[in-house]
Design goal:
Number of helices: 5
Strand content: under 5%
Helix content: over 70%
Order of helices and strands: HHHHH
Number of strands: 0
């Protein structure tokens, strides 16, 4: 998710504000320490103007 956020020109704080979470939550998701709920993942995809599937697949590829 970090790559997509950066491509969108958003800071972690800006994305956090858009999805109603803390900056630390965004960092946790980006580093794999936290797993977002489906609702949070959908909000992040919407904030990044990406299909949810694209965001989830990218995160799976980064984990592999």
């Amino acid at each position: 998710m970090r790559d997509q956020r950066r491509l969108a020109g958003l800071s972690a704080a800006e994305l956090a504000a858009r999805i109603g979470r803390t900056t630390w939550c965004v960092y946790g998701i980006e580093t794999g320490r936290m797993q977002p709920s489906l609702a949070v993942a959908a909000a992040a995809a919407d904030a990044l103007a990406l299909p949810l599937e694209s965001l989830l697949l990218d995160d799976l590829n980064e984990a592999a």
